[in-house]
Amino acid sequence: MASTFGSEELFVRLLVAGGAGIVLGLPYRKRPGGVRAHYLVTLGAALFCTSGANLVGPPSETLRIIQGVASGIGFVGAASVLKRGSAIFGITTAASIWIAAAVGCEAALGNPRLAAVVAPAVALSSWAMGHLERKVFHRRRIIQELREELDERERR
Asked: Distance between CA atoms of 75 and 65, rounded to whole angstroms?
């Protein structure tokens, strides 16, 4: 529990959380929910978890803090989702922001080494899935066609 951490260990956990957020944000660096957003989400989740754990004490109460972070981060994720016509964009970014909060909580209250391993693994798998979508499923071409169709509808 966070109340048993020394200030040096707490600082290391927050550094791991922040670093994990930067790594998680790299695949989204050209989007609104990019590196800064992921960094702030992981660091914020870590701070909420450690501060709350120091205040409430028992592990059962700490679970409520984690639950609050998990549900509250949904609002941040929802802000990254855009609807344009019948197309919806940003769901992957929202999911990544949600994972960033989980990694921040893990770095703060759980195993910071696990958080340090999970963040690059998630970022790498996200990049690989995006590459697969473009090359195998031609997702970029389909999205471009959909955007052109929506633009044409709006001009009419």
From this structure: 16
- Give the predicted TM-score (pTM) of the model: 0.75
Chain centroid to CA 116: 14
Q: Which amino acid is at 31?
A: R
Q: 73 and 120 in contact (C-beta within 8 Å)? A: no
CB 37 within 8 A of CB 97: yes
Asked if 115 and 87 touch (Cβ cutoff 8 Å), the reply is: no
pLDDT at 27 over 60: yes
**DSSP one-letter code for 2:** G
DSSP string, 54-117: HHH-SHHHHHHHHHHHHHHHHHHHHHT-EEETTEEE-HHHHHHHHHHHHHHHHHHHS-HHHHHH
